[in-house]
Design brief:
The structure is a single chain. With 507 residues, the protein is of the alpha+beta class. The chain folds into two domains: 314 residues, Kelch-type beta propeller (Neuraminidase, 6 Propeller); 89 residues, Immunoglobulin-like (Sandwich). The chain has two helices and 32 strands. Strands 26-32-31-28-29 form a five-stranded mixed β-sheet, with no helix packed on it. Strands 1-24-23-22 form a four-stranded antiparallel β-sheet. Strands 2-3-4-5 form a four-stranded antiparallel β-sheet, with no helix packed on it. It is rod-shaped.
C-alpha cells in the first residue's frame, strides 16, 4: 500500500520525484491465460500483445491484448502456428513479427506476422536457421535483428540473422562473440543492439553490443549477476531494465529472481535500485517485459514453480529535463539613458511547464521577473543581459544571453557640447556677417541713391547743355544771318559806290 500511495504522489508532484522509488511497482489485472515463454510487445495501437507461449502442458497459440488505459484484457485472433520461445519485434508500419521458436514437435522456422489494425495473421519468409529462445530487436534502419538462441546444431547460437520487412528477405550479420540462448536483446538509446545474459552451459552475465552500421560487435560492462530468461526493456528514461530471471536452464525451475538491474548505455554502467519498492512484486523467470505507450514498464507472465498470469506495472521516475529560455527581442538597442527599453522572452519545458522568469544585467543585477517587461532606468554602458526560466520542478534553465548598449544622451556628450559651442560661434559669426551684409546693402542702397541723384543731375545738366547748345546754335544762326546780311549789304553798297564817284569834274 505504501508503494501505491508513494507512486500516486510522485505522479502528482513532478518536483518531488527525485525522492521517490524508481521503479515503483503496481499489480494490475492478471492475464486471462497463465503462461511463460510468450512473445510480448506493445503495438502501435497502445495495446500490449501476449502471443503464444507455454504452460507446462502445451504450446499455445492464444493471443491476448492488454489495454493499460482501462486495465482490461481482450482475446485476439489466435496464431496460425502455436509457438513458444519465439523472438518478437515490430516494423515501422506496426506489423508484429513472431519469429521461430518451437512448436509442438520441435524447432520451427516459421515467421508469423500480425496486423493489429485488421487483427489478422500472415506468414512471411522463413528464418534461415530456426532458433528457440533467441531474442530480437528492430534497428534504426527498420530491419529486425534476431540474435542467438538454441537450435539443432547450434545449442548456443552465435548467429545474427537480419530480416528486412520491406523486402521479406533474410541476410546474415557478423556472428555474436558469445554464443548463447535464453538471452535478452534490446535496441539501446544509442541505436546499438545489446545482447545481455543468457545461457551457454551456465547462466551468463556477458553484455555485447552490435553496430548495425558497421556489422561489428563490441564487449560492454557485464551485468551485476548472471541470469537467463529475464525480461529486458528500454525504459522511458533511456536506460535498459533487466527484470527477474533465473539461472537454471530447465523449464519452470528455480531460482526465481525479483531483482531489477539498470544499465546506462551512456556511461556503460549498471546500478541496482536500493528501494524495497523497486523489486518486482512477483519473482519469476520466462517472463516478458515491454514499455507501454504510457511510459510504464509491464512484466507479464512467467514461471516460479508454476506458470503464472501475473501482470505488474513499473512506474519509472524520469529525471527532470531542464527548461529552455529564449530571448525574442530587446528594443530599441542601442538605447539612450532614460529611454524605455522593451524586453521580450519566452521559455519551454518538455516535461512540465514554465512558472518563473528572471532577467539580469551584468551592470545592474536583476532587472525583470516577467517574460515581457520594460524599463527606462538602465545604467549607461554595455550590458550583458541574461534571461532564464524556472520549471514546475524548480529547475532553472541555462541563461540565454544578449548585449544591450545604453548610451549617454547626446546633450551630455563632450563632443556634442564642443560642436554646440562651435555652432553657436559660427551662428554669431553668421549673424555678424549678415549684419555687415545688411550694412553693405544699406551702403549700396545709399550709393545707388547717390548715383541716381548724380544721374538726375547729369541728365539735368545734359538737358541744360542741350538747351544751351540749341540757344547757342540759334544765336549762331542769327549771327551768321546777320553777318551774311551785313556782308550782303556791304557788298551791295560797294557795288553802288563807283557810280556816284564818277561825276563830271566840273561839278
Amino acid at each position: 500500500m505504501m508503494s501505491l500511495l508513494t507512486l500516486s504522489f510522485a505522479q502528482l508532484m513532478p518536483g518531488f520525484a527525485v525522492d521517490m522509488p524508481s521503479p515503483s511497482w503496481n499489480t494490475k489485472t492478471h492475464m486471462p491465460t497463465s503462461r511463460g515463454q510468450a512473445a510480448i510487445i506493445t503495438g502501435d495501437d497502445g495495446l500490449i500483445y501476449v502471443m503464444g507461449g507455454y504452460n507446462d502442458s502445451a504450446v499455445l497459440s492464444v493471443v491476448e491484448a492488454y489495454d493499460p488505459s482501462t486495465d482490461t484484457w481482450t482475446t485476439k485472433t489466435a496464431m496460425p502456428e502455436a509457438t513458444r520461445g519465439a523472438a518478437v519485434a515490430k516494423d515501422s508500419d506496426g506489423i508484429i513479427y513472431v519469429i521461430s521458436g518451437t512448436n509442438a514437435t520441435g524447432y520451427t522456422d516459421t515467421v508469423q506476422a500480425y496486423n493489429s489494425t485488421s487483427n489478422t495473421w500472415s506468414t512471411k519468409t522463413a528464418i534461415p536457421t530456426a532458433a528457440w529462445m533467441a531474442s530480437a530487436a528492430t534497428g534504426n534502419d527498420g530491419k529486425i535483428y534476431v540474435i542467438g538462441g538454441e537450435s539443432s546444431g547450434f545449442f548456443f547460437s552465435t548467429k545474427t540473422q537480419i530480416y528486412d520487412p520491406s523486402t521479406d528477405t533474410w541476410t546474415s550479420g557478423t556472428d555474436m562473440p558469445t554464443g548463447r540462448s535464453e538471452l535478452g536483446v534490446v535496441k539501446g538509446p544509442d541505436g546499438l543492439i545489446y545482447a545481455m545474459g543468457g545461457y551457454a552451459g551456465s547462466a551468463l552475465s556477458v553484455v555485447e553490443a552490435y553496430y548495425p552500421s558497421t556489422n561489428l560487435w563490441i564487449t560492454k560492462t557485464s551485468m551485476p549477476s548472471p541470469k537467463l530468461e529475464f525480461g529486458l526493456v528500454l525504459g522511458p528514461d533511456k536506460k535498459i531494465y533487466a527484470i527477474g530471471g533465473g539461472t537454471n536452464y530447465g523449464n519452470n525451475a528455480g531460482p526465481f529472481y525479483d531483482i531489477v538491474e539498470i544499465y546506462d548505455a551512456n556511461t556503460d554502467t549498471w546500478t541496482i535500485p536500493g528501494w524495497l519498492e523497486s523489486t518486482m512484486p512477483t519473482a519469476r523467470k520466462e517472463l516478458g517485459a515491454t514499455l507501454g505507450n504510457n511510459d510504464r514498464i509491464y512484466a507479464i507472465g512467467g514461471a516460479n514453480g508454476t506458470y503464472i498470469s501475473a501482470n505488474e506495472e513499473a512506474y519509472i521516475v524520469l529525471p527532470n529535463i531542464s527548461p529552455k529560455a529564449y530571448i525574442d527581442s530587446i528594443t530599441p538597442n542601442p538605447a539612450t539613458r532614460g529611454e524605455t527599453i522593451i524586453f521580450e522572452g519566452h521559455g519551454s519545458d518538455s516535461d512540465g511547464s514554465v512558472k518563473a522568469y528572471k532577467w539580469r544585467s551584468s551592470i545592474d543585477g536583476t532587472i525583470g521577473t516577467a517574460a515581457t517587461f520594460n524599463t527606462s532606468t538602465l545604467t549607461i554602458g554595455t550590458h550583458t543581459v541574461y534571461f532564464s526560466v524556472k520549471d514546475d520542478s524548480d529547475a532553472w534553465s541555462e541563461e540565454a544571453m544578449a548585449i544591450v548598449t545604453v548610451n549617454k544622451p547626446i546633450t551630455e556628450d563632450p563632443l556634442y557640447q564642443e560642436l554646440l559651442s562651435l555652432n553657436e560661434t559660427m551662428n554669431n559669426q553668421i549673424d555678424d556677417l549678415s549684419q555687415q551684409n545688411d550694412d553693405l546693402a544699406d551702403n549700396v542702397d545709399a550709393l545707388s541713391q547717390q548715383n541716381t541723384n548724380l544721374t538726375d543731375k547729369v541728365n539735368n545738366l545734359t538737358q541744360k547743355t542741350d538747351l544751351m547748345t540749341l540757344e547757342l546754335l540759334g544765336a549762331s544762326v542769327v549771327i551768321i544771318v546777320l553777318v551774311v546780311v551785313t556782308i550782303a549789304v556791304t557788298y551791295q553798297s560797294k557795288r553802288q559806290s563807283p557810280a556816284r564817284t564818277r561825276r563830271s569834274p566840273s561839278v
